Amino acid sequence: MRRVESTLPEKNGKIIVFFCEGSLRGKHLDEHIERHKEAFFVKMPCGGMVNPVVMFKSLMDGADGVVVYTCPEFDCHNFDGNSFSKRRVFAGRKVAEALGVHPWRLVHIERDPLDPGLLTRTIVQMSRNVESAEVIP
Amino acid sequence: MSLKNSYRLSNPFNFVINGTLGIFDTLKVGFASINPLNHLGSLTLLFFLVQILSGFILSFFYMPSLEHANNSVKYIMSDMVPYGLFIRTLHRYAADAMIIFATLHMFRKFFANRHTSTRSVGWYVGVGLLVFTVIITISGYILPMDARADAIVSFFGLSINSVTFLIIYRAIHVALPILVFAMLVVHFFRISRPPIIPTLALTIISLGFVAVLIGLFPIPADEMKMKLAKYSFDWVGLWTIKLPSVQISQVVWGGIVGILLLLPFVGKKIKNAAVVDPWRCSGCLSCKSLCPKNAIVEKQFNVGRGKSKKVAFVIRKKCQACGVCVAGCLPQVIELEGRKTAPMLEEVRDLCVE
Amino acid sequence: MNSNILEYIKETVKEALESGKIKAFLGYTDVEGIPGTSRPYLAETPEDVDNLTFNSFCRQNLIRLGGGKTNYFPELPGKKDKLGIMVKGCDSRSMLANTAEGKLDREKLWVVGVACPGTINIERLRATLPAEIKTIKDDGTNLQIELVNGDGMKLDREEYLDVRCLNCKVTKPLDYNFFIPNDTMRTPTTHNFEWVEQYQSKAFSERSEFIQSHLARCTLCFACRDACPACYCNENCIMDRPKLAEPFLHKSNELKNILMYHFIHYYHLADRCTGCGECTRACPENIPLNLITDALGHMQKTAWNFEAGMSDKSKPPLLLIKNEEILED
After folding, report:
1. DSSP one-letter code for C235
2. Who contacts B204 (Cβ-Cβ below 8 Å, separation ≥6)?
3. CA distance C157 to C125
C-alpha cells in the first residue's frame, strides 16, 4: 500500500489574523502588531472576502491558527460582509473538523466596542492552546 | 513603468459610445460583416496596400527629375500606357480614402476608450502614422509638377531645384511608406488577434466603389497644364495649404498632435472592482444572489462559432469592491482588482514559512 | 425484485418514446460479462428500450450525467423536447437541489421515479467471496449467488448494502412525472443522523487519526468530484486549471495537499450536499468519505435547519443574505 511520505506541518507558533479595513486601523493596528510578535496581520477590503479555502491553505502552509476579525454585525461597511464571513467560517470549521483538523484553529470574532481586549485574548488563548498541544494533535 | 501599478482612465466622452448617445453602437447594428464602421482600421490598411501596389506600378513610368516629371505623368495618363489613367486616379483617390478611414478609426478608438493603459502604445504610434500619411500625401501632390504643385511649393516657401525634388521623391514619398510599414507592426503589437484584414465582401464592395468612382470622375487630362488658374482641389489631403500661412499651419498641426498625444492621460480614474473571467464562468450566478449592491447581472457571452453562454457580469459603477463574490465563487473566476487571490496566498505562505 | 416491474418500466418508456413525449431515455443497462454491475445507458429508439434494466446493482446517479455534465446530455433543440430519466430517491434530491440553484431545467426532463430497494456494494461483496461470481440475483431479502467454481450461496442483502442506504431518508422519489412502485422498497428512516452524533461524541484525536489514516490513501484522482452531482462547474473547476490551482494545491502525495483538495471540495458542498453518497461509491481507494458528507448534512440540519434537495425552492444558506433561523453553536 502506498504511504504518504510527510505528515502535516509541525507547530511553529504562528497565527494569521485576517482583518477587515473597518475593524482595525490606524494606531490600533500598530498597537496590535507591536503587542503580538507571533501573529501576522493580513488586511482584507471586507470580512466578506475572507474565504475559508484561503484560511485552510494558511493552516496547511504551517500556520497554527487563523483568526478572522471583522466589524460587528449590522455595522458592516458593505451591508452583509461580516455575516457572510461568520457563516462561511462556521461551515469551514465543520469541514475542517470532519477532515481531522481541529475546528478551533479557525476562529471568527467580531470587533466589540465594549470589549477592546477581545482580539488580544483570542490570540493569547489560541497560542496557549497550541503550546499545550490541545489544538494540534 | 510596470503596467501592474498603472491605473486605467475612463474617457470623458464615454457617453458618446456607451452612454446616452451611443452613436457608434447604434450605427453598428446589422450587416456586421459589411458595415465599414466595424472595419475602419482594416480598411485603412487595405487602402494603404492599394497605395503601395499602385505606386509601385506608377514608379515604372514616372521620371523623378524636374524637367521630365510633368511630361512623364502626362505620358502615364495618355493612351500609351494601358490603364495608366486608371492607376493614377486610383493612387490619388485611395490616398484620400486612407486618410478618411484613418481619421474615423482614430475617433472610434477614442470613443470606445481603447487609447489608454496598454493600448496607449498603439495610440501614440497611430498619431505618428497619421502625421506621416499627411506628409506623404502632400509630397505626392508635388511630384507631377503642375499648377497645384506650384501652389504647394509657394505655400511652404520652398526653392525647388533638381536636388530638393529628388529628396522629396526619394526621402519622403518612397522611404516614408517603408517606415510606415515598420510602424504598423508596433501598431498591432499589444493587440491579440488584431482583425487587420477586412471581410472579403467588404473588400470587394469598397474596391468596387472606388473603381466606379474612378470611372465616373477620372482626373481630367487638361489639369496637367503648367499654368492653370483653376484646378480641382483635394480638401481631404491638402486642406493644410488653404491655411493663411506656414506658421499657422505649423501651430495647427502642433496643436492637433499635442492634443492627441495628451489624450491618454486625460480622464478620471476608475476605482477598483471585481472582474469576472467570462471564459471560465460556469454561469451558476451564486455571486448574483450574494452581491449586497446588486452589481452583478446575468449576461450572454459570445464564445465564438455562433454560440453564447450565460455568465455573470459586474457593473463597475455599482461595485463597491467588498469581495463577497470573490469568496463565494466556487470555480474562483472572480478577482478583485488590487487584491488578487494568488499574490495574497503567496504573501500568507511567506509569512508561515519564514 | 420481480421482473414485472422491469417490464412495466420498459412498456412505459417505449410508449413515451413512440408517442414523441421524450426524445431519449437515460437509464441503466447490464454490463455483459460482469454480473452484478450496470452502467448508464441512453435509449434513443423504441428498440433500444429492451436493453434497459433496473435492479439493486444500478448505483450511479444519473442526474450527474443527464443534468449536470452536459456532454452526456443529448442536444434537445426544440422548446418542448424532453429527456426521459430514471431517478431513485437520492437522485431526486440531487435533481431538486440543482433545480433550486438554477442549474437544471426541470421542464426539459421527464422523470420516471422508482421506489428504491437500496443498492448493493458489489465491490465489498466480491472481496469477501472465494471465487468470481457467475450469476447473482437479488430477491429482496437475500442475494442468491452462483460462483464460477459451481458453489451456490445465499447471503443476507442487508450486510452488503451501500452505506448511504442504511440510513436513507428518501427511498421514494420526491418529484417525478411517473412513479413505479416496488414491493421491496426500503422503509425510510427518520433518525438518519443518529450515528453521526454517536461518531462525533468520540474524542477528537481518535476521529482525526481515523479519517486522516484513510485520507492518506488518496491519490488525488478527483473521482469523487467527477461523480458528484452538485459539482457542476465541469471544465471550469479550479482543480483542472493547473496554473490557477497551483497556489492552492501542488499535486503531490503530501497529506497537506490531500487535505487541501478535500477541504476545497467539501467546503464548496457544505451547504449543498444532499448526501447521495456518490463520492463514496466512486472512490477507487474506498475512503469512507460518507463520514464527511454526513457531517455536512448534520451541520445543515442542526445549524441552519436546512436540508439540501428537499424542495426546489430553498436556496443554499451560504448564498442567503439574511437567514432568520440561523442557529449556530
Report:
1. G
2. none
3. 10
Separation between Cα atoms, residue C283 and residue C224, nearest integer Å: 6
Query: Residue C151, SS3?
Result: coil
Grid cell, residue C307, equals 436540508
What's the residue count for chain C? 329
Are B239 and B284 spatial neighbours (Cβ–Cβ below 8 Å)? Answer: no
DSSP B176-227: HHHHHHHHHHHHTTTSSS---S--HHHHHHHHHHHHHHHHHSPPPGGGG-SS
Query: CB neighbours (10 Å) of residue B285?
Result: 19
Query: Which ipTM score applies to this complex?
Result: 0.91
Contact of C248 with B348, CB cutoff 8 Å: no
Q: Does A43 touch chain C (CB under 8 A)?
A: no
Does C318 contact A56 at a Cβ distance shorter than 8 Å? no
| A8 in contact with C, Cβ within 8 Å | yes
* Residue C266 vs residues C103, C214, C291, C304: alpha-carbon distances, Å: 19, 16, 11, 17
Contact C286, C295 (CB under 8 A): no
- Residue B126 β-bridge partners: none
Q: By the CB < 8 Å criterion, does C78 face chain B?
A: no
SS3 C24: strand
Q: What string of pLDDT tens digits covers the 354 residues of chain B?
A: 222 333 445 556 655 554 444 455 555 555 666 777 778 888 999 999 999 999 999 999 998 888 888 889 888 888 888 888 999 999 999 999 999 999 999 988 887 777 876 678 889 999 999 999 999 999 999 888 888 888 888 888 888 888 888 888 888 999 999 999 999 988 887 665 667 788 888 899 999 999 999 989 888 877 776 666 567 778 888 888 888 888 999 999 999 999 999 988 876 666 788 889 888 888 888 888 888 778 898 888 877 777 778 889 988 878 888 888 888 888 888 988 878 888 888 888 888 776
Tell me which H or E stretch contains B335: strand B334-336
Residues forming a β-bridge with C28: C40, C53
The whole-angstrom separation of Cα A131 and Cα A125 is 10
Torsion angle in degrees (nearest 10) through CA of A120, A124, A130, A134: -100
Chain A residues within an 8 Å CB radius of B292: 78-81
